Amino acid sequence: MVSMIEVRGLSKQYRIGHSIRHISNVRELAVSAVRGAFKRQPKEEHQPESFFWAVKDLNFDVGAGEIIGVIGANGAGKSTLLKILSRITDPTEGKVTLHGRMASLLEVGTGFHPELTGRENIFLNGAILGMRHAEITRKFDEIVAFADIEKFLDAPVKHYSSGMAVRLGFAVAAHLQPEILVIDEVLAVGDMAFQKKCLGKMSEVSKAGRTVLFVSHNMAAVENLCQRSLLLRQGRVIFDGDTKSAVGEYISATNRPGKGFGHAIDLSDAPTRQPHLAQIFRRIELFTGEDQPAPRAVQVGERLKIKFHISLPCETPKLTVAFCINTLFGQRVLTLNTLCDPELIYEPLSGDIQVVCDVPSLTLVPGEYLVSLFLDFGAEHKDAIPDAFHFTVLDGNYYGTGKATFSGVFVSPHRWSVEPVAEPFLQDAGS
Predict the structure, then answer these.
(1) Is CATH 3.40.640.10 the right assignment for the domain spanning 264-394?
(2) Which of 238, 259, 297, 381 could form a disulfide with 392 if both were Cys (CB 3.0 to 4.6 A apart)?
(3) Hey, how many other C-beta atoms are within 10 angstroms of the C-beta on 160?
């Protein structure tokens, strides 16, 4: 396979603490002078310098037509890697060799001039990519239709919303035929329909022989789109291989006990807990299958068992617990509530107890979700933790067809059949 990207010994070091800032214009010089006049300068005191490696000794190749996922926790070095590849920042050590034109979408409005219109920015970006005017003109209508900004095409980009800017940015990057396309988490700015359209376009670009690097925290999207992924941790590649294994390693690595990301989630100091209410929720444990501890990720259709560790300050005759699942946009998609179980027997309870909710099959579609927790004594609200934690539903072979799960909110078992008819359909209802 022909390599489109070759990375050898790539490292980037940043300095923390006292440093001499490069002043590039008169405005920065004036601001620096004013700050200096009011800033106290202790004699013979120097802020100690420290250094850290944002990325360290990266080595990998990316072939033509590959869609590579780049995953890892915040601070792992993903964005730094893409900025080096995109020539936004220079490496401290090592080198990158690119075989072809690269288009990058690393943040909203990347490569746009805010004073120029959408139309003018399309031609500007095309020129930066080395496209001829005739080539850009040929693709122009496709770009505008994909971005869905016809009404605002001749308005300055500075007046665009973040969603409009990212739609135009992706449309330009994907349609002007770069050999290499780099996409950061910026797609999360768009709505669900646009994200789905972008994922389809990236797949189409790859089938045309172009290379895609895709950074995302949405593990379901990475699994659906990428066959191979790089897992970064503390600036190093700790796994380079098939995406399913990479996602599994990522979940395992980031959900180890002691970090608050494992199957046991400590709620005692939850920052979103309502301060005027009691602190009754202590901990939650998540399990799948036959009581196997599960990190904050379950596969679509998998069994989920939730164990609530609760400390009751006094005896209560009727305890109500709710486990509410929302999308990242705040839409409530599922509520698991003790009130919904007609067989649950309510008895006076007190002290430290454990409440268990068993979901035989979690049928939410793949994606990222937020969980909110609520606890009542009868009709009295006692504890509430909005957005207590997030978890991921991963795609799987739910329907047994090997196909990816379709969009929506839920999946459901169903069967199709084709049946003969006793009489031919009438061509005319009146005949």
Answers:
(1) no
(2) 297
(3) 22
